[in-house]
Specification:
Shape: globular
Radius of gyration: 23 Å
CATH architecture of the largest domain: Up-down Bundle
CATH superfamily of the largest domain: RecF/RecN/SMC, N-terminal domain
Number of helices: 8
CATH class of the largest domain: Mainly Alpha
Strand content: 15-25%
Structural class: alpha+beta
């Protein structure tokens, strides 16, 4: 698969742009601030309906314009298709395939598959857990576009549940009806457990598949290292033991929500679920294995007798 032609209208710095591309490697060369990264960002946005640089769509639209357009001619197995996304900040985006409207924009996800690496990706190691969770979920959606709906549902449910926790917490202090708030909260507990379990099960499966690649990649770039010297582990916000199936995880999540109910009411936020999980990269072997974030330099100094070139 490759992109044969890219069209931009009011995207970032471009009023209009027409870029013809060929199979194989392409390099965009120019001075800083000329829009090279914008071209890469546009193709990546078409792939996953999100930017690797900003959290919202508004910065993607050129100043003074109301909307932006990204259109790409994509060739796969000798067949060509026209994919298009109209970006409407504050409104629903519109997606088309071969000029025909799609019922929902997210149905475009996964038709073009991209992998982007940018300086900001160092946050996967150095940054907060939220960035690593987002990385996992982006990859899940690329592999199985239906999970975009699961991800969106979970975020919506989490937002609603947090709002109810604040209301129920206030009810315990006598400002509103506690019984009504807690009754409604129980319904959202079930929703959170169901969607959260599906997301958690998929993350666990993905991390298990990625783990050997992480070790192999580290052994490739770190002199004297073996594939056992780098680890990738998923750390859920609750004890799940060996559970990996969705139904079992849902039951476990629901039980933990009940256990943590008072703490959640006191704090007004959901303390259990995939939104609190961590993806940990580690280096070392046996007892010397330490998380890369915050301790990588200490680890390399401790092992200075074995020269290595760390990839991070």
């Amino acid at each position: 698969m490759y992109v044969a032609h890219l069209t931009l209208v009011d995207f970032r710095s471009y009023a209009t742009a027409e870029v013809a591309l060929e199979p194989g490697a392409t390099a965009f060369i120019g001075r800083n601030g000329q829009g090279k990264t914008n071209l890469v960002e546009a193709i990546d946005y078409l792939s996953r309906l999100g930017s690797h640089r900003v959290a919202s769509d508004a910065p993607l639209v050129r100043a003074g314009a109301e909307r932006a357009l990204v259109r790409a001619s994509v060739v796969r197995d000798g067949r060509q298709a026209m994919l298009e996304i109209e970006i409407n900040p504050g409104k629903a985006n519109r997606a088309r395939v071969n000029r025909a409207d799609l019922p929902r924009a997210r149905e475009l996800v996964g038709l073009v598959r991209t992998v982007i690496f940018a300086p900001d990706d160092l946050a996967l190691v150095k940054g907060d857990p939220a960035g690593r969770r987002s990385f996992l979920d982006d990859l899940l959606v690329m592999r199985a576009p239906r999970l975009a709906g699961v991800r969106a549902d979970y975020e919506r449910i989490l937002k609603q549940r947090n709002s109810l926790l604040k209301t129920a917490g206030a009810a315990r202090r006598g400002s509103t009806s506690q019984e009504s708030a807690l009754s409604t909260l129980g319904v959202w507990d079930s929703h959170l457990a169901r969607t959260g379990a599906e997301l958690l099960a998929e993350r666990l499966r993905l991390v298990a598949e990625l783990r050997p690649y992480v070790g192999h990649a580290y052994a490739t770039v770190a002199r004297g290292a073996s594939s056992d010297d780098a680890g990738l582990d998923y750390q859920p916000s609750l004890e799940i033991g060996e559970l990996t199936e969705r139904d079992d995880l849902a039951e476990r999540l629901l039980g933990e929500l009940e256990v943590r109910r008072n703490d959640e009411l006191d704090r007004g936020v959901s303390l259990v679920g995939p939104h609190r999980d961590e993806l940990q990269l580690s280096l070392g072997n046996g007892e010397q294995r330490l998380p890369v974030r915050g301790s990588c330099s200490a680890w390399s100094a401790r092992c200075s007798s074995r020269p290595r070139t760390l990839p991070w």
